[in-house]
């Protein structure tokens, strides 16, 4: 009887053994918490890498990497101005795998911002936001904003010159918003200046509030995908399905491995920057926001209200309103559908403009925000 | 598989971290130690100093640093040179306090052995490390620091504290003449030449070159030649003056002890090589009669000359040293009075009032920035790039100190004409002034000076004859640019060192105790009763009970002393009897000169009483020293007049 215990232990966890029959494969998807997120069968069309590029999945994996590395870093980092910088040095030099963890965290963060943006572009260009997927698109926009917020709050934590002044610029842009702007800034910083209160708030936001919100919205995002009938596809491809196990699950595993390899390689090859300790009396010239806000900073240069308020608010509202305005079901599930030429063109232009101002702000602006050639 | 590769790669990279490899290497060199026994090192090493806010991990790689046996080990395992770690134990001071660099790092590059970006405190070279000594050692002359002590002394000598607030320096130390009554003292030509370039008149001038334009010089001359606080000069009958006698008196009084003439002499006072071209005869006469009337804070004593002597001396100075320096010619035309107002403006703008007092001129704020945190000053990206010099703080300070106009054309700071060594010393002293002071438990300072103000008759004499210009008593007394007083004889315990009779005799007529001595006490013409008062006071008050010990004088002791005298070869440096060397004082007749207790104390520990003395420490016991002293003090004076008397 006792020889039975290991087998019974195993069985209680893994209700279905390694699935080999069709029936087993169907049941496997329902048998575990992680797997039952998936449907038992998926459309073959959406499995093609050239369709989704796996971008949404990559975003999610990067979030997981960030959570894991972030938790590890939380064991060593101290969120107080007197100790933050020193704790970063400790992580870099004294903690075993500390530099690797930090690099992984930073490159995964930058990667996630970029990938989330690309994922949004993919969803647009394949018309996958159209009804019944309007809400999911809105959730996606919120997730984009959360990603930017997470990156922003994390940016301050090293408490070096780069961090301090980037957040100075960023929160200054926030304050441009008419009426509530200065209040929001005060709320973010816990005061008028960036100090211990600001660091602690950003830390709490970055490690607790925003990840929780992100996790909930991600869960909602995945659930809505199921509820809306899976990933979108063109009408003629709607009905050909394959089993999730192995086709979906193994592809997901492959993407995971690729993401991990990429993150590891980046972490091993490139070191995250750490400048001198933050000094409120010494402003670098130019003081630049984090790269994903440099487009905004460039626009602010042309006009504070324009760059800081009109454009970002306008863009966000436009994105949110999009699926409620453009409901015509044509061109869903295909890249650059003919019928959606105008919409695609407009979006492409806007997206490229966003990229362009960001590139300008990153490479072509020097001291006093004067134009410089980067070579 | 790629994943496996990257995971393995990460692990290997960590496993082969620089410090781990070095520790393995050390283990192979020193298996006993590395096994974790006493003094062994295993794993990351760290010295954490909360009060200094430093975390130093240097010893993770520098494993042999505290082990003297590792003097010849290969780097980085070599022991620290010298005895520094005995004085500054690593567990109390860490490494970066002295060396700079990034202590938190565990890689060669990260530790900033060479400068790296984003770490503002690179490791210091040997000379610049002295600046770091100065962050804790706030005294004026920290032991063992050549550059730092010299730099601080130079800063005191050049009156930096007049224009800049400098920690460790007091505005009371500023030394510069009052500018009252210049019109009666100097001709306009001299003043013009001086203002244009002080060193053209006085090569060793402490006043810097203010790089004034011709117009500024004119205006300042006009302003300064106004009758500010003018005192009337004394009159003399010049027809009766005898410059020859004046010259004899000049030499007998030993004026050159303080005043350089034709390239030789002291620097306590200005060189007199061209004084006749500068000061009027009447002024020289008035000055010699009573310098304190014109400059209450002058270091010069008021010699007791008769009016005739003063007159002859003034005539000698005026005629013998009447040629102006070559290339020092200026117009003697009286300056335009209308420029005086402008001159006053320049006087204020360039901060002349910071050093010089002037009747009726208010004392205003300092014109220079505070230097309290100059060692941490952050520079603009490349101010020295135009000169092809790398922009570092030491370079910037060195350039500025050597020539302020090289850093900023419109600078108000004068050019002091420092040599390279001097500028480097001042740079080191400046670099020691940091924004964040070392915590009180770590700093050492000079004790707060207790001003010594002797009273009564003695005090009046000390003030008249300016004893404290050359000698120190209880730490008070003038200190020269080298950081030491002019005379090596402190008067704190002179009463226990020299007999009263000798003191009286010497003060009345100073002579060279050591034949080879260049600088000797000037002959102040002190009156006999004054010499008596001074000697009486010094013998009674300036004593040290520890030295007041009698010495046996019985023949046996003296004989033993003679034996010791011959055995230790004292005659090589001292004259005793008819022969001997000229290095030390003659010993014949020293019984009348030296107090016995002092002779013994000196023989026992010469280095203690006069650091750097040539007198050797023979390791004598007290009885031996007493015997030797007894012998020396018994030597009779020579009948014939010897040298120097």
Helix content of chain A: 55-70%
- Looking across the biggest beta sheet of chain A, what order are the strands in? 1-2
Report the mean per-residue pLDDT of chain A as an integer. Answer: 90
Amount of beta strand of chain A: under 5%
Shape by Cα distribution of chain B: flat
How would you characterize the overall build of this protein?
Chain A is 65% helix and 2% strand. With 375 residues, chain A is mainly alpha-helical. In chain A, strands 1-2 form a two-stranded antiparallel ribbon. Chain A is globular and about 70 Å long. Chain B has 645 residues and is mostly helical. Chain B is flat. In chain B, 38% of the residues lie in helices and 2% in strands. The longest helix of chain B has 14 residues, at 2-15. Mean pLDDT of chain B is 89; it is low at 34-40. At the A-B interface, helix 5 and helix 11 of A face helix 1 of B.
Question: What are the SSEs and their pairings?
Answer:
The complex is a heterodimer of chains A (375) and B (645).
Chain A: H1 5-13, H2 22-31, E1 41-43, H3 49-52, H4 55-74, H5 81-93, H6 98-125, H7 134-156, H8 161-174, H9 181-189, H10 196-227, E2 241-243, H11 244-269, H12 294-302, H13 304-325, H14 341-363
Chain B: H1 2-15, H2 18-29, H3 31-34, E1 47-49, E2 54-56, H4 84-87, H5 90-93, H6 96-99, H7 126-136, H8 146-157, H9 160-163, H10 188-196, H11 198-201, H12 214-224, H13 243-253, H14 275-278, H15 281-289, H16 291-294, H17 307-320, H18 340-349, H19 393-402, H20 420-431, H21 456-465, H22 494-497, H23 500-508, H24 528-541, H25 555-567, E3 575-576, E4 579-580, H26 590-593, H27 596-604, H28 606-609, H29 622-634
Antiparallel strand pairs in B: 1-2, 3-4
């Amino acid at each position: 009887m006792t020889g039975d215990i290991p087998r019974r232990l195993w069985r209680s966890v893994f209700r279905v053994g390694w699935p080999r029959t069709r029936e087993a494969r169907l049941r496997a998807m329902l048998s575990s918490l992680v797997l039952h997120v998936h449907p038992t069968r998926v459309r073959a069309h959406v499995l093609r890498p050239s369709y989704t590029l796996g971008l949404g999945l990559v975003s999610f994996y990067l979030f997981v990497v960030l959570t894991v590395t972030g938790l590890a870093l939380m064991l060593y980092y101290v969120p107080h101005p007197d100790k933050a910088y020193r704790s970063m040095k400790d992580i870099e030099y004294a903690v075993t795998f500390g530099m690797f963890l930090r690099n992984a965290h930073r490159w995964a963060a930058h990667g996630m911002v970029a990938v989330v943006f690309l994922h949004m572009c993919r969803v647009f260009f394949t018309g996958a936001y159209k009804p019944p997927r309007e809400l999911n698109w809105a959730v996606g926009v919120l997730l984009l904003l959360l990603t930017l917020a997470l990156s922003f709050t994390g940016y301050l934590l090293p408490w070096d010159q780069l961090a301090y002044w980037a957040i100075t610029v960023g929160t200054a842009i926030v304050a441009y918003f008419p009426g509530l702007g200065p209040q929001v800034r005060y709320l973010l910083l816990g005061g008028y200046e960036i100090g211990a209160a600001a660091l602690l708030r950003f830390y709490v936001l970055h490690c607790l509030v925003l990840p929780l919100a992100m996790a909930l919205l991600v869960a909602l995002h995945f659930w809505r995908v199921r509820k809306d009938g899976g990933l979108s596809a063109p009408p003629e491809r709607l009905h050909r399905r394959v089993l999730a196990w192995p086709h979906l699950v193994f592809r997901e595993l492959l993407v995971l491995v690729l993401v991990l390899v990429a993150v590891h390689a980046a972490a091993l090859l490139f070191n995250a920057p750490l400048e001198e300790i933050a000094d409120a009396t010494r402003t670098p010239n130019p003081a630049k926001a984090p790269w994903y806000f440099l487009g905004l900073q460039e626009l602010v240069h042309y006009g504070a209200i324009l760059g800081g308020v009109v454009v970002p608010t306008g863009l966000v509202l436009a994105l949110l309103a999009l699926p409620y305005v453009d409901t015509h079901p044509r061109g869903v599930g295909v890249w650059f559908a003919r019928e959606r030429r105008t919409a695609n063109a407009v979006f492409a232009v806007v997206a490229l403009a966003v990229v362009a101002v960001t590139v300008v702000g990153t490479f072509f602006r020097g001291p006093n925000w004067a134009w410089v050639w980067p070579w | 598989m790629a994943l496996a590769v990257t995971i393995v790669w990460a692990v290997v990279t960590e496993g082969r971290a620089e410090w781990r490899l070095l520790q393995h290497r050390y283990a192979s060199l020193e298996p006993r130690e590395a096994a974790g026994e006493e003094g062994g090192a295993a794993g990351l090493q760290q010295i954490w100093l909360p009060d200094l806010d430093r975390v130093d991990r240097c010893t993770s790689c520098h494993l042999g640093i505290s082990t003297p046996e590792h003097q010849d080990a290969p780097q980085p395992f070599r022991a620290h040179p010298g005895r520094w770690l005995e004085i500054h134990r690593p567990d109390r001071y860490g490494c970066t306090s002295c060396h700079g660099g990034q202590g938190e790092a565990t890689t060669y590059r990260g530790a900033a052995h060479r400068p790296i970006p984003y770490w503002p405190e690179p490791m210091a070279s040997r000379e610049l490390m002295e600046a770091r000594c100065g962050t804790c050692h706030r005294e004026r002359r920290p032991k063992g620091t050549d550059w730092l002590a010299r730099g601080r002394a130079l800063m005191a000598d050049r009156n930096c504290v007049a224009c800049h607030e400098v920690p460790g320096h007091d505005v009371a130390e500023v030394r510069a003449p009052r500018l009252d009554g210049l019109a009666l003292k100097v001709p306009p030509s001299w003043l013009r030449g001086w203002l244009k370039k002080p060193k053209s008149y006085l090569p060793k001038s402490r006043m810097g070159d203010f790089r004034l334009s011709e117009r500024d010089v004119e205006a300042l001359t006009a302003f300064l030649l106004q009758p500010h606080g003018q005192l009337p000069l004394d009159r003399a009958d010049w027809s009766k003056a005898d410059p020859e006698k004046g010259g004899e008196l000049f030499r007998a009084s030993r004026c050159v002890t303080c005043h350089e003439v034709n390239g030789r002499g002291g620097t306590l006072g200005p060189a007199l090589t061209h004084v006749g071209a500068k000061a009027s005869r009447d002024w020289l006469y008035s000055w010699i009669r009573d310098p304190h009337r014109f400059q209450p804070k002058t270091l010069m004593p008021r010699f007791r000359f008769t009016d005739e002597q003063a007159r002859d001396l003034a005539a000698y100075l005026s005629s013998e040293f009447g040629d102006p320096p070559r290339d020092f010619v200026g117009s003697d035309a009286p300056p335009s009075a209308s420029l005086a107002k402008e001159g006053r403006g320049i006087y204020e703008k360039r901060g002349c009032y910071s050093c010089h007092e002037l009747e009726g001129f208010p004392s205003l704020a300092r014109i220079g920035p505070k230097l309290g945190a100059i060692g941490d000053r952050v520079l603009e990206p490349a101010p020295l790039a135009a000169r092809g010099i790398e922009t570092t703080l030491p370079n910037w300070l060195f350039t500025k100190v050597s020539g302020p106009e090289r850093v900023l054309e419109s600078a108000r700071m004068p050019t002091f004409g420092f040599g390279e060594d001097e500028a480097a010393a001042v740079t080191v002293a400046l670099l020691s002034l940091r924004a964040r002071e070392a915590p009180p438990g770590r700093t050492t300072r000079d004790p707060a000076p207790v001003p010594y103000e002797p009273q009564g008759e003695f005090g009046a004499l000390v003030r008249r004859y300016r004893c404290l210009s050359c000698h120190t008593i209880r730490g008070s007394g003038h200190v020269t640019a080298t950081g030491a007083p002019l005379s090596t004889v402190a008067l704190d315990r002179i009463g226990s060192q020299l007999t009263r009779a000798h003191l009286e005799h010497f003060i009345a007529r100073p002579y060279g105790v050591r034949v080879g001595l260049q600088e000797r006490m000037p002959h102040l013409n002190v009156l006999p009763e004054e010499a008596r008062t001074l000697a009486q006071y010094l013998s009674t008050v300036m004593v040290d009970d520890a030295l007041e010990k009698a010495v046996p004088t019985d023949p046996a002791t003296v004989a033993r002393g003679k034996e010791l005298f011959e055995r230790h070869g004292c005659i090589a440096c001292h004259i005793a009897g008819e022969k001997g060397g000229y290095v030390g004082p003659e010993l014949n007749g020293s019984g009348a000169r030296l107090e016995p207790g002092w002779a013994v104390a000196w023989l026992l520990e010469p280095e203690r009483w006069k650091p750097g003395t040539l007198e050797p420490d023979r390791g004598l016991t007290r009885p031996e020293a007493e015997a030797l002293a007894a012998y020396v003090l018994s030597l009779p004076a020579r009948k014939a007049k010897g040298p120097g008397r």
